[in-house]
Design goal:
This protein has 392 residues and is mainly α. The protein has two domains: 3-295, Rhopdopsin 7-helix transmembrane proteins, CATH 1.20.1070; 317-389. It is built from ten helices and three strands, in the order E-H-H-H-H-H-E-E-H-H-H-H-H. Helix 8 packs parallel to helix 9 (297-344). The longest helix has 48 residues, at 297-344. This is Prostaglandin D2 receptor 2. Keywords: Cell membrane, G-protein coupled receptor, Glycoprotein, Membrane, Phosphoprotein, Receptor, Transducer, Transmembrane, Transmembrane helix. Belongs to the chemokine-like receptor (CMKLR) family.
Length: 392
């Protein structure tokens, strides 16, 4: 059995054969562009997914749908949080300098996210199918606890399927001692099998389940005469399409590299392309939160409200407290005016003379001036107390 001991890109199953192991660290324009994209995806993705987790986790009533979205966002957050280290790896000329153990953990996160995303989208598609085709069963048995257990099983399976990618990751120092690269030591047949295992479980099988589920959903809705799909169905379709567009190029090159003969130009081309199509795969974790927000107006409003609450808490020490006191004073003035004016200046009675009406208006102005003086005096006392206590 021919043994393979190869320098590989961090997130690829095989290697770019034909590239010397002592590759230079000179950055090309495409590498600079890719590194810039990684930094952008990482920053935006972390903020987006943290926001989704915070809003859906704490400001949205817990439901089956929210549990699905929370798990997708958690998986995407893991992926985007790992991106800065991948960016560092590429910026240093595909050189890993953070240790073997962290190399294995970090690389495994990429594959874990891939498995979890595929499994979750397949499960959500089956869930939609059951809701449409078996509404009575869904009403009786579909609940948060069941979905939570399913998500737990999905994460456990994803961890199990990620183990081979953890075991066969390693680092090696080159003879010149300047760089270290990720390596894998496997027979060629095992290496090809690992790549096909990844594509089959993380992409092809979930894709088949998704297609069959939504074909059944559309057929069921057509029988009922429902022309417009539910809002969540539209959201899931958008997420699934994004998943396919982002991950299909990666898996296409994985298959090309796995089935091409050893050291064939097609295998070399696939190996060179994989780091860049892996970047497109990361884009999926950035786009999902955007789809959640634009597909769900209620979620968009809650996020806007949450951001406003954050700004209020930041400014509360300097401005919000003073604004609250002034607002309270204005509200008190309006209440007193409404109450006293209604008492001092009742509606004109039939036959009321001009002199009596003018007297009532004069009394209204006197009361208004008295209220304003009282409010100003109260505000003066409040300001004096604030200055004494050091609040303002």
């Amino acid at each position: 059995m021919e043994t393979l001991f190869l320098s590989i890109p961090l997130y690829c199953t095989l290697s770019p054969l034909g590239i010397p192991s002592n590759q230079t660290t000179k950055a090309t324009s495409i590498n600079v562009f890719t590194i810039t994209l990684h930094g952008l995806f990482s920053s935006v993705g972390i903020i987006e997914n943290l926001l989704i987790l915070g809003v859906v986790g704490f400001h949205v009533r817990r439901s089956v749908i929210s549990v699905w979205i929370l798990n997708l966002a958690a998986s995407d957050l893991l992926a985007t949080a790992s991106l800065p280290f991948f960016t560092l790896y590429m910026a240093r000329g595909n050189t890993w300098t953070l240790g073997t153990t962290f190399c294995r953990i970090h690389s495994s996160i990429f594959f874990l996210n891939m498995f979890v995303s595929g499994f979750l989208l397949a499960a959500i598609s089956l869930d939609r199918c059951l809701v449409v085709l078996r509404p009575v069963w869904a009403q009786n048995y579909r609940n948060i606890q069941l979905v939570g257990k399913i998500c737990g099983v999905i994460w456990a399976l994803a961890v199990v399927f990620t183990i081979p990618f953890y075991i066969f990751r390693d680092t090696i120092a080159l003879p010149d001692g300047k760089i270290s690269v990720t390596t894998i030591t496997l027979g060629i047949s095992q290496t090809s099998g690992l790549g096909l295992h990844e594509t089959l479980l993380a992409f092809l099988i979930p894709l088949l389940i998704i297609i069959l589920s939504y074909a059944a959903v559309n057929q069921g809705l057509a029988r009922r005469g429902c022309r417009r799909p539910f809002r969540f169905v539209r959201l899931v379709v958008a997420v699934v399409v994004t998943f396919i567009l982002c991950w299909a190029p990666y898996h296409l090159f994985i298959i090309m590299e796995a089935v091409a003969p050893s050291r064939h130009p097609a295998q070399r081309f696939a190996g060179k392309a994989l780091p860049y199509v892996a970047t497109i795969g990361f884009l999926n974790s950035v786009l999902n939160p955007i789809l959640y927000v634009f597909s769900c107006p209620d979620l968009r409003n809650k996020i806007r409200h949450s951001l406003g609450a954050v700004m209020e808490s930041v400014l509360a020490e300097d401005l919000a407290e003073l604004a609250r006191r002034r607002s309270t004073a204005r509200s008190l003035t309006l209440v007193l005016k409404s109450y006293l004016f209604g008492w001092v200046l009742p509606p004109p009675q039939a036959g009321q003379g001009l002199l009596q009406l003018c007297s009532s208006i004069r009394a209204q102005k006197d009361v208004e001036e008295g209220i304003q003086q009282g409010v100003e005096a109260g505000q003066t006392v409040t300001n004096a107390m604030d200055e004494k206590n050091g609040t303002l």
